[in-house]
Amino acid sequence: MHEFHNEQFRSTLILRVKEAALKAFLCRSARSYESFGVQSLCDLFALTKPQLLQIVNRLIIKGKLQAHMDLSSQFIVMDTERIQSNEAKELQQLSLQYAEKLEGMIENNEKLIDLLAGGSLYSTYAKEKAEKAAEKAAKIAESTSTKTAEVDGDF
């Protein structure tokens, strides 16, 4: 318990808590506000201006905060277009993950039905899938050989 009485440790801990609170506030409020006043954030979180700017710059550089600094007017301006595009990218990633999981679940269900039905359903499905893949590969090979013949004929 002796280390908790150390003043340097206490001040560092308090600074880290303020930093975490500022990060949480900025990330949560980014969609609601167009800008934040540097001085108002300093007052709200009891940070010095250099401390605040260091934390905000770190968030911007790491890509956790979509904003830019306007030091002439002392504002942190949110980039709403980048925020919306990042949200769309995240949503697309989540939907792809969801689709992959559904595909796996469907395949597992088909295998289970195949086992329960005596082995005829899934084996037919697998054969059809393999035939389609073979047809697709043959078409690709045919189109590639045709393009190669056309290029060879030009010389």
A few lines on this structure:
The protein has 155 residues and is mainly α. It has 5 helices and 3 strands. It has a 3-stranded antiparallel β-sheet.
How does this model look, in words?
The chain has 155 residues and is mainly α. It has two domains: 2-78, Winged helix-like DNA-binding domain superfamily/Winged helix DNA-binding domain (Arc Repressor Mutant, subunit A), CATH 1.10.10; 82-145, no CATH class. Helix content is 75%, strand content 7%. The protein has five helices and three strands. It has helices spanning 7-29, 38-45, 49-62, 80-117, 121-154, and strands spanning 35-37, 67-70, 75-78. Strands 1-3-2 form a three-stranded antiparallel beta sheet. Strand 2 (67-70) and strand 3 (75-78) form a beta hairpin. It is elongated, with a radius of gyration of 29 Å.
List the helices and strands and how they pair.
Layout (H helix, E strand, L loop, with lengths): L6 H23 L5 E3 H8 L3 H14 L4 E4 L4 E4 L1 H38 L3 H34 L1
Antiparallel strand pairs: 1-3, 2-3
Keywords:
single chain, 155 residues, mainly alpha, Arc Repressor Mutant, subunit A, 3-stranded antiparallel sheet, 5 helices, 3 strands, 75% helix
